[in-house]
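Recap quiz, item 2
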Amino acid sequence: MREGNANAVGCDGKENIMNAVNHSAAKSQSGLLSILFVALIGATVLFVAGHAQSSTLHDAAHDMRHATGFPCH
Amino acid sequence: MLQRMLAGGLIAGFAAGLLGVLLHFAFVQQKILLGEEYETGAVVHFAGASGAEAHDASHEASHDTAHEHEHEGSQPGDAARNALTVLFTGLIYAGYGLVLVAGFALAEHFGQKITPPVALLWGIAGFVTFQLAPAMGLAPELPGTIAADLGLRQVWWLATVLATAAGLALLAYGRGVWAWVAAGALLAAPHGVGAPHLDEFFGSAPPELAAEFAARVLGVGLATWAALGWLAGRFWTREAG
């Protein structure tokens, strides 16, 4: 915002720059949220397939857990 | 951005998982099956060196059986069991793939460029993070291995993965001596603390079998992770272009 004001030369220019600044801040924030979201999905998959101890899951994932070095039993 | 990450991570993950499971059936599965035969007592390893209960009476016969078994080659096995291994290997590498592309996106967010050679290095770093560093404390276990409390081992595993990932990221992208010192400390800390272990060994399988199993697991892991990094990097740069 401050940057927008400093660079503004007129009403139209100011508005455009402020829009651009707001837009890039919003984009950056949504980018970080997307990254967090994808990392969380990945971590959840890893937890369920690799660590969860329900006996059905354990039996189904057994060979893969041994073969990828997860603590299994 | 979201679509690029999800599609790239999942496709690269499942494709790498497919390679991983092929390598698993070629190199690892027969070791698991043989380990299970020792676990159930279907074949018995002589107990001389380990100091466990003596099985001397069955030594001769069982030792021969074990060797014959090893050379029988692949058996049809249990189809459902193998199908589940395919499914879960695909799933686990899809999970790794998503975490990897989230890492790519985070690096680009901070102005680092991800190119295919860099992505290959990320894949190898992923192998170090998720498999090699935890294996330093908790070696890949044959079925039948008796080990310390599962919860404690999982906590150590997770802490090691987080510390190794942070350490490698600092080493690669950190600036200045203190970043490198912190990186070294993070990489070393889990091994300084040490993984939970029992005071005795209880293995029923021969040490040679356990060693072959562990070495092959790590080799297959490296190959699969390298493929994952390479594939994810290809998708990532293609989508960007």
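Residues 216 and 229 of chain B are 20 Å apart (CA to CA).
Helices of chain B lie at 2-40, 59-70, 79-109, 116-137, 150-173, 177-193, 207-240.
End of item.
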